[in-house]
Specification:
With about 525 residues, chain A is mainly alpha-helical. Chain A has helices at about 1-5, 15-35, 50-55, 55-65, 75-85, 90-95, 95-105, 120-135, 140-145, 145-175, 180-195, 205-220, 225-230, 235-240, 290, 315-330, 355-360, 365-370, 405-410, 440-445, 450-455, 495-500, and strands at about 250, 300, 375-380, 390-395, 430-435, 465-470, 475-485, 510. Chain A has 22 helices and 8 strands. In chain B, strands 1, 2, 3, 4, 7, 8, 9, 10, 11 and 12 form a 10-stranded mixed β-sheet that branches. In chain B, strands 5-6 form a two-stranded antiparallel ribbon. The longest helix of chain B is centred in the N-terminal third of the chain and has 21 residues, at about 5-25. Classes of the chains: A mainly alpha (about 525), B alpha/beta (about 300). At the A-B interface, helix 21 of A face helix 4 of B.
């Protein structure tokens, strides 16, 4: 129907350029996402946090909440400045989540428009809420920020599910008793492993929940085209405010009779059919109205700056959102970890700042978890204070901290995890290993085992073995080597816990005690 | 495991067990003299490797035209070569070249690492060296492990890496290091790198398990890398003061003899290792070095 209303073909230049730009940026984003994986060298070699660094909302709130400047503010500032001059090109032409919404929305045929009229204000109120809370040092913007949300959802949920699906499908295929099928499946798997699939199957706690959330956000396109962008996205709100006086703008000449042909195609829901009520802050410069206009009165260009409708959010609503943002600060911080007692399971990545400082910076983007070479970094649920949900926690039983790896700090967009130099890494303790002599094979069961000592990576072993003669069930002497942890040498990397053959509950395990970033959480004098 | 898989596995295992006896002739025509081992010393790892293999009759004696060869170094850890935690990359690269010169169709290099494989392959220098020599370098994949029958005293079956058993020839290239339970990790211990499953459990009865593995995976050739050896804090290392420069490689077909020789590099008796004694008793090889014809060369 929309196409029937679009008369001439020459008009689709803007649309074509936009689609090309969207495709290009989505591919760039996905390519950087796939490069967020170790190739074995010390440096990752790709600017994988580029999109996060360019995100004005994340950078602004991180600066507010951490009370410090970030190197990324130049890039993010450039995007903000560009928005001031060129409007919300980011939403319409760049944002990879926006493009995914477009793709999802394009499969929807019919919508029942039941969205209340003033809903567009929601995102501005969310922005006010986030700005207020970050001004009071709470960093929860990353929960809602579209780029952080997208990277987190892809890393922890979509990509693991994709890999699981593809590999198990091809595996099943290669087991079929059809000649030629197994080599073909193997060949395809080898190809996919070269560029698309991760070396090891990534698996994350809460992957299901985060995936459901992400699908839910995409599914909102069934309610309204780009629902998330129009009503919820706080980055869109920030860019909307910045774009209100932009030089690059849409303009409508005299002939418009408000026929409404432009309405169905409008991405931002900016009320394009009415030159008076048009909401400039909601315009993504998508150009669809230009395409659709039967009278050809719409144009996009620089310098024309028609009077835009004021952004009326309502003073009471703004105050309420700000107050809620302030109230969220203590609310999300009340938990036992605030009493100075660190959660023993809260093992942070190496180079993490002191916990309070860490939480003020971590935007829960999931980059560190994506890049973690052993897959041990997992999203927190209850280990940290409520504000720390989805922040990275090392779960040694899932994956340990590789002794010489510093990738998590390299990809952290806000410096919550410092980028460690290779020479610094060995001195960073993230916890301490403890032995459970009631479960350890040589301690409790007269069975030889030295796995924890074998795998301990410190140059002088932090697991020491003491040869002891114990008796077996017949009273015969058995020589075993009992492990003991040298608390000075142990860095808490967790490879001992990861490889401990005592299943169920390992006989050696790491706690956050002794982490070098904390002054209180120490065991030794 | 379905029936088809079982038959395949049984066939592969049976063939592997039967093959070495056929493949290892006592007096090869290519060998100038009947040697049990060659030990080469010299400053260049590549040159001593080549010299040792040549003195042992040349690679053509072991690798035939069109063979698929698996070279199994120790790439267990994320360490650079100077720490002597992983096999010397020049030794590996030279062996790959020698195999190709002997007419090998394909040379595969892999190890089931303990550290994360990407770092271990890269940092050990083996990824670059093997690739430069034209080898097929691959990471070990879970799906390529198959539960296989082992005619062992202790191990009856274990998930083992199929590519090892599909190869025409296997060359074991361990590095000599100290180790917590087996005292040293040499050739037989290197077979842990083709084991899947929870292989850490074998430490409970390490020596019989290693002999069982050595019985199952019979190499065409063992090349012990003792260019640098790790004398303390092994098998991971990390401290250069624990590394001794020996500039040595030893080549033999006898897994027990190589490990016996390796022990002497650490100032231990030839029968110091439990797996060596057990292997000797089981007739897997000869640990009595004095009764063997060992040629020592400088290169």
């Amino acid at each position: 129907m929309e196409n029937a209303l679009a008369p001439e073909s020459g008009k689709t230049v803007i649309r074509k350029a936009r689609l090309a730009s969207q495709a290009l940026f989505l591919l760039l984003f996905l390519w950087l996402f796939l490069q967020t994986e170790s190739k074995g060298a010390d440096q990752l070699g790709y600017p994988v946090k580029f999109f996060l660094d360019a995100d004005p909302l994340l950078v602004l709130t991180a600066i507010l909440s951490s009370r410090s400047f970030l190197p990324s503010m130049l890039l993010a500032g450039a995007v903000a400045l560009a928005t001031v001059f060129m409007g919300r090109f980011f939403c319409g032409w760049v944002c990879p989540l926006g493009t995914l919404h477009n793709l999802t929305g394009s499969v929807v045929r019919k919508r029942r428009r039941t969205v209340p009229k003033g809903s567009f204000r929601l995102k501005y109120l969310l922005l006010v809420f986030l700005l207020a809370s970050s001004a009071f040092t709470l960093q929860i913007t990353g929960i809602f920020d579209p780029l952080s949300l997208l990277i987190r959802s892809l890393s922890l949920s979509v990509y693991p599910a994709f890999q699981y699906g593809v590999t198990s499908f091809l595996d099943a295929l290669s087991r079929w008793p059809v000649p030629g099928l197994a080599p073909a499946a193997d060949w395809l798997l080898d190809i996919l492993h070269k560029g698309v699939l991760s070396l090891r199957q990534p698996l994350f706690n809460q992957g299901f929940l985060l995936g459901l959330l992400f699908l839910g956000i995409l599914a909102l396109n069934w309610v309204e085209r780009r629902y998330w962008c129009r009503y919820l996205c706080p980055l869109g709100a920030l860019l909307g405010i910045l774009s209100r006086r932009s030089l690059l703008s849409r303009s409508v000449s005299e002939g418009c009779d408000s026929c409404g042909a432009c309405v169905p195609g409008c991405e931002g829901g900016c009320f394009p059919q009415s030159p008076d009520k048009w909401r400039k802050a909601e315009c993504y410069l998508c150009g669809n109205c230009d395409d659709a206009c039967p009278k050809n009165v719409v144009s996009f260009g620089f310098g024309r700056n028609p009077a835009a409708q004021a952004l009326d959010l309502g003073r009471r609503r703004v105050i309420a959102a700000a107050a809620a943002g302030v109230a969220a600060v203590p609310l999300l911080r009340i938990g036992p970890t605030r009493a100075g007692q660190a959660d023993p399971r809260l093992i942070r990545p190496p180079g993490s700042l002191e916990e309070r400082e860490f939480l003020r910076r971590c935007v829960k983007c999931g980059e560190c978890m994506k890049v973690c070479i052993t897959g041990g970094l997992q999203p927190a649920l209850t280990e940290a204070a409520p504000e720390g949900i989805w922040s990275p926690v090392l779960v040694p039983r899932v994956g340990y901290c590789e002794y010489r790896c510093t990738l998590c700090g390299q990809v952290c967009p806000t410096g919550a995890i410092r980028s460690l130099k290779p020479a610094e890494k060995p001195d960073v303790k993230i916890g301490l290993a403890m032995i459970d002599p009631g479960r350890c094979l040589p301690w409790a069961h007269a069975v030889p085992c030295i796995v924890c000592e074998e795998v301990c990576p410190t140059p002088k072993k932090a697991v020491l073995l003491e040869e002891v003669v114990v008796k077996d069930r017949d009273g015969r002497p058995v020589t075993v080597k009992q492990p003991r942890v040298d608390l000075d040498r142990c860095i808490g990397c967790g490879i001992c816990e990861n490889r401990c053959p005592v299943l169920g509950k390992p006989a050696i395990y790491v706690l956050s005690v002794g982490e070098s970033r904390s002054r209180e959480n120490q065991l030794l004098l | 495991m379905n029936r088809r898989e079982f038959l395949k596995t049984a066939a592969v295992t049976g063939a592997t067990l039967a093959l070495p006896g056929l493949l290892l002739p006592d007096g090869s025509a290519a060998a100038a003299e009947k040697l049990d081992m060659v030990v080469a010393k010299g400053p260049s790892p590549a040159r001593i490797t080549r010299a040792a293999v040549d003195a042992f009759g040349g690679m053509r004696r072991f690798v035939s035209r069109g063979d698929v060869v698996v070279i199994k170094p120790n790439i267990g850890w994320d360490r650079t070569p100077e720490y002597a935690a992983t096999t010397n990359p020049e030794v590996v690269g030279t062996l790959v070249r020698l195999c190709f010169e002997a007419g090998a169709k394909k040379v595969k290099v892999f190890d089931h690492t303990v550290s994360s494989p990407r770092r271990a392959y890269k940092q050990s220098g083996i990824a670059d060296a093997a690739a430069a020599a034209g080898a097929d370098l691959s990471f070990v994949e879970d799906r390529k492990f198959r539960e296989m029958k082992i005619q062992g005293e202790t191990l009856k079956s274990w998930p083992l890496y199929t590519e090892v058993f599909e190869a025409d020839k296997i060359i074991n290239v361990p590095i000599a290091k100290v180790h917590g339970t087996s005292i040293l990790t040499l050739g037989m211990k290197n077979w842990m790198g083709v084991m899947g499953g929870s292989r850490g459990r074998i430490h409970q009865r390490i020596d019989p398990c290693l002999v069982d593995m050595a019985r199952t995976v019979r190499p065409t050739l063992v090349v012990l890398d003792a260019v640098r050896i790790l004398v303390a804090n092994g098998p991971t290392g990390g401290d250069l003061s624990d590394v001794r420069l020996m500039n040595t490689v030893a080549v033999s077909q006898d897994q027990v003899a190589v490990d016996a020789f390796g022990s002497t590099l650490f100032g231990l008796r030839e029968d110091a290792l439990g797996c060596v004694r057990l292997g000797h008793q089981a007739g897997l090889g000869n640990m009595r070095l004095a009764r063997q014809k060992i040629r020592r060369i400088q290169a």
